[in-house]
Amino acid sequence: MLTHLDSQGRANMVDVTDKAVTFREAAAEARVRMLPQTLHMIVSGGHPKGDVFAVARIAGIQAAKKTSELIPLCHPLMLTSVKVELSAEGEDSVRIVARCKLSGQTGVEMEALTAASVAALTIYDMCKAVDRGMTIDGVRVLEKSGGKSGDYRVADA
User: Fold this and answer.
1) Considering the entire predicted model, what is its pTM?
2) Looking at the annotation, which residues are catalytic?
3) Which of 29, 82, 90, 131 could form a disulfide linkage to 64, CB 3.0–4.6 angstroms apart?
C-alpha cells in the first residue's frame, strides 16, 4: 500500500499523530566515480577550493536537516544525530555513508538518502572544473531500524 495516497489516489502527508515515539535510525550510501587524478587531488589536499570531504560532509548534514523542505510529503523531523562519512575507494571512487538518528514517530530513511545525495552533489560541484565526467551512482538505503515496519538491511552491506 502506498501510504502517501488517500482513498481517491491524491497525494497527502501521512498522519503520524497516533504512532508511538520510538528510536529510529537509517543509513544510506552514494558513490561518486571520477578520474584517478581527481581522487588523488582530493585525498592529497591539493584542491584549490579546499578540503572537499569537509565541505561535502557539512553539506550532507545540512541537507539531512532540510529534507522536509526538499521532498514535498516528508515530515519535518528533530534529528538527534547526523553523521556523514566519506572515504576513497579504489583509485577512482568516493563512497559516502550517511547515518541519521532520532526518537520520533516516523523513519529517517529520506534524511539519510538526502544527506548522501547532497554530499555527492557537493563533490561534483567542487570538482567539476577538473573532471566533468564524474558520475554519481549507487544511492540506496543500507539499513534502517525502528518503527512498525521493523528492521531492514541490504543484503550486501
Assistant:
1) 0.91
2) 125
3) 82
